[in-house]
Write a structure and sequence with these properties.
- 28% of the residues are buried.
- A hairpin with a 2-residue loop joins strand 3 and strand 4.
- The longest helix is centred in the middle third of the chain and has 16 residues.
- The chain has a seven-stranded mixed sheet with strand order 3-4-2-1-5-6-7, sandwiched between helices. Strands 8-9 form a two-stranded antiparallel ribbon. Strands 10-11 form a two-stranded parallel ribbon.
- The radius of gyration is 26 Å and the shape is elongated.
- It is an alpha/beta fold.
- The chain contains seven helices and eleven strands.
- Bound molecules: NADP nicotinamide-adenine-dinucleotide phosphate.
- The site of NADP nicotinamide-adenine-dinucleotide phosphate has 22 residues, from helix 1 and helix 2.
């Protein structure tokens, strides 16, 4: 297949290299040819890829001819030594060590955060340490807390995770167990998430708009849950707010 690639894994016998091989398999990455590299002491030994033994090669310029992407995880000093040579041979290097993370000429690409940075690479891409990658969720929490100020409260923010086999519709604030059962949660984010479900999962645009109009109507009438209540508004609990929105919705059918 023309779109399949020649891939090199440098440090293929190590923990990170082995994980790279397993991920390439699991994700069915379009690999036409896999070349494995490690230290001198491993040359001639084999690693397994897609059930086949792959012989470890010696790291030298000719061995990278034709390689399109090289994943490097043989250590920082080794990346500094080998990456320029691998780039010169024509491959793009994705480096897993800390060799280039602070290099202004090398984009540091963080999954789900700045994939666009990869576009400005000049042959080498750096990625953060795996522990940094998983803190991305924490950054997401910080960003959503800050963005909530625009809508007045986290309780006003619906969300949809689209693009996978199924969509997931839920309020941005998640389950909020600390306020469960107290009647003070704002149900609007959950109700607007249902509107997104109607729109994006079921293609029911008119019904989605009716739900959104119902929410707007109730807010215009001055009803507020505790998180968005102000002087002069009518403070209501979770159930009362939901009932008001349901009535405003029913009135449109
Ligand atoms: N970004 C991330 O998420 C992430 C995660 C884990 C690790 N890493 C990085 O990946 C690198 C390797 O970590 P690891 O845990 O996989 O280490 P490891 O298990 O010790 O594996 C080291 C690998 O490098 C090879 N190697 C060692 N010296 C070499 C040399 N002089 N020339 C060529 N190959 C050589 C080893 O080959 P032999 O078997 O022949 O010795 C082995 O394949 C480190 O820089 C680490 O910080 C990054």
């Amino acid at each position: 297949m023309a779109s399949e690639l020649c891939i090199a894994v440098v440090g293929a016998t190590g923990a990170a290299g082995q994980t790279t091989l397993r991920i390439l398999e699991e994700r069915k990455f379009p690999v036409r040819e896999l070349r494995a590299f490690a230290s001198e002491r491993s040359v001639g030994k084999t690693v397994t890829f897609r059930g086949e033994p792959i012989t470890i090669r010696r790291i030298e310029p000719t061995a990278f001819k034709g390689v399109e992407i090289a994943f490097c995880s043989a250590g920082s000093a080794q990346s500094k030594e080998y990456a320029p040579m691998i780039v010169k041979a024509g491959a793009t290097v994705i480096d897993k060590s800390n060799a280039f993370r602070m290099d202004p000429d090398v984009p540091l690409v963080i999954p789900e955060i700045n994939a666009h940075a990869a576009r400005r690479h000049r042959g080498i891409l750096a990625c953060p340490n795996c522990t940094t990658i998983v803190t991305e969720n924490t950054f997401g929490d910080i960003l959503s807390d800050e963005a909530a100020i625009l809508a007045g409260s986290m309780g006003m923010l619906p969300s949809a995770s689209l693009g996978g086999a199924v969509g997931l519709y839920e309020p941005v604030h998640g389950t909020a167990p600390d306020i469960a059962g107290k009647g003070i949660a704002n149900p609007i984010a959950a109700i607007l998430s249902a509107a997104m479900l109607l729109r994006y999962a079921l293609g029911l645009e008119k019904d989605a708009e009716r739900v959104e109009r119902a929410v707007l109507r109730v807010l215009e009438e001055g009803h507020r849950t505790a998180d968005i209540a102000q002087a002069g508004t009518n403070a209501v609990g979770t159930r009362e707010m939901a009932d008001l929105i349901v009535r405003a919705l029913e009135a449109q059918y």
